[in-house]
Specification:
The chain is α/β, with parallel strands linked by helices and 274 residues long. The chain has helices at 23-38, 56-68, 83-89, 128-139, 159-162, 169-178; strands at 2-6, 43-47, 73-76, 102-106, 109-113, 145-148, 183-187, 195-199, 202-206, 213-214, 226-227, 233-239, 242-248. Helices cover 23% and strands 22% of the residues. The strands form three sheets. The protein has a six-stranded mixed sheet with strand order 4-5-6-7-9-8. Strands 3-2-1-12-13 form a five-stranded mixed sheet, with helices on one face. Helix 2 (56-68) runs parallel beside helix 3 (83-89) and helix 4 (128-139) runs parallel beside helix 6 (169-178). The two termini are 33 Å apart. It comes from Bradyrhizobium cosmicum. Residues 1-193 form the Calcineurin-like phosphoesterase domain.
Length: 274
């Protein structure tokens, strides 16, 4: 089974740019690239920061664009989103408490989409109501589960990001830790970085956004670092006893040498020597 993971698309008004890049144009590039190479994916999930300013017009445009897309897509919200504006366009994605949380069953497991957004802050929160929702979902099904969220649920040891991580990380990790045998993977966004690790013993991963990318500058203590690294999305493969996660740099503008090109050099599959 194949799943596509996108994050931090940061939609803006048509023609507006972030870091010299056009988020709408880059999201369109990501959708086209993903459909060309991965039209057989069972699901696409976008883990938040759908709009850069939480503008209603961005959500209307996103709804129209995804309604036209031939793959099923599920959404989380992030710190740049506005829950009320989002739910006015996607009302079917609200849980019983008014948070953007839900369920989608796939061949690889039951996907749970979590809402870690909190008004007036870029940090994430996961309150008692949301913890209760997650506890109930994990208890009512045998799994396996795949969890999708925006904020990093563990420290990444980059000060600017850890200041705005999931601030309720301890109770969150305690909860998922009690169910770790049923959870295959945790997917998140927010940091605009390729990251891998574990959350309460559960494998976790993140990736760059589809527009602007960060760089892990460990000496920085206050500001988020920007870079000209390529935009990316994720491709995830599931087997009975493994998960493989790729970060596809669809925004890379350099050379990719393919068989038949003049400077192509094949790898010897047996000796791995060119």
């Amino acid at each position: 089974m194949k799943l596509l993971h996108l994050s931090d698309i940061h939609l803006t008004a048509p023609g507006a740019t972030i870091g010299g890049r056009d988020p709408r144009a880059n999201f369109e590039r990501a959708l086209a690239h993903a459909l060309r190479d991965h039209h057989d994916a069972e699901l696409m999930v976008i883990t938040g920061d759908l709009s850069d300013w939480g503008d209603l017009a961005d959500y209307h445009w996103l709804r129209q664009r995804l309604d036209e897309y031939p793959l099923p897509v599920r959404l989380c919200i992030g710190n740049h989103d506005r829950r009320a504006a989002f739910l006015s366009v996607f009302p079917d994605l609200a849980d019983e408490n008014g948070f953007v949380q839900g369920i989608h069953d796939t061949a690889a497991g039951r996907c749970l989409f979590l809402d870690t957004a909190h008004p007036e802050t870029h940090a994430g929160r996961y309150c008692e109501d949301r913890l209760g929702w997650l506890e109930a979902r994990l208890a009512e099904h045998d799994g396996p589960f795949l969890l999708f969220m925006h904020h990093n649920p563990m420290p990444v040891h980059l000060a600017p990001f850890d200041q705005i991580r999931l601030l309720d990380e301890a109770p969150f990790r305690q909860l998922v830790g009690r169910h770790r045998a049923k959870i295959r993977h945790v997917f998140f966004g927010h940091c605009h970085l390729p990251l891998a690790g574990s959350v309460a013993g559960i494998p976790a991963s993140s990736l760059r956004g589809t527009n602007h990318a960060s760089f892990p500058l460990f000496s920085e203590t206050r500001l988020l670092s920007a870079s000209d690294l390529p935009q990316a999305y994720g491709v995830v493969f599931f087997g009975d006893d493994y998960v493989t996660v790729h970060m596809v740099e669809f925004g890379y503008d350099g050379a990719i040498r393919v068989e038949g090109s003049p400077d192509y050099q094949a790898w010897d599959r047996e000796t791995m020597v060119r």
